[in-house]
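Loading example: each entry is read as two labelled lines plus one structure line.
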Amino acid sequence: AQTVTQSQPEMSVQEAETVTLSCTYDTSESDYYLFWYKQPPSRQMILVIRQEAYKQQNATENRFSVNFQKAAKSFSLKISDSQLGDAAMYFCAEVGTQGGSEKLVFGKGTKLTVNP
Amino acid sequence: DTGVSQNPRHKITKRGQNVTFRCDPISEHNRLYWYRQTLGQGPEFLTYFQNEAQLEKSRLLSDRFSAERPKGSFSTLEIQRTEQGDSAMYLCASSSVPQGGLRAFFGQGTRLTVV
């Protein structure tokens, strides 16, 4: 079974500062991918960043980067130079590749507030 | 606009009524997923299609739920005899397998309220 846990229901950050959102996961699959999705209010969920589990190098996308600790099953998201538009729900998700469905398993989310 | 489109955006229905939602995926995507998101929770998988074939259904999908994807294009999700517990956001996502790199694109969702 796959589970994803986000232990921070809410986080806040000052504009231009850095914030880190936590995520831990558990999976029985040997090959899997991890994702962070952003869900702004009343808008669709969009992919922020993706990490292949077989890659040791942490993924980065502009101001977004991850700290992937495979042995600890930890996958945190760091947002640098936070902007007002970063305010949203952030979901950590995992996909195993062995079952064939590639369905996403999500955490409960972290609500990020960005203060001006 | 070539994104995933869902209609209607909002639906209010009385308990016991039937409702149907529609999802139009990105045109070249062969995979289509339905998820359900309740308040304070992350989305939960319901079912998915590879082209027109429905390949997996979650235990969350009771007998009152049915999904179709005729001709492998748009999909519909029908809920019969709605219950208050069905109130949720229903999300559709599409992806391209195997070329898509496991990137799923989501629609804005249909928010269902059962009164």
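Chain A touches chain B through 25 residues (CB under 8 Å).
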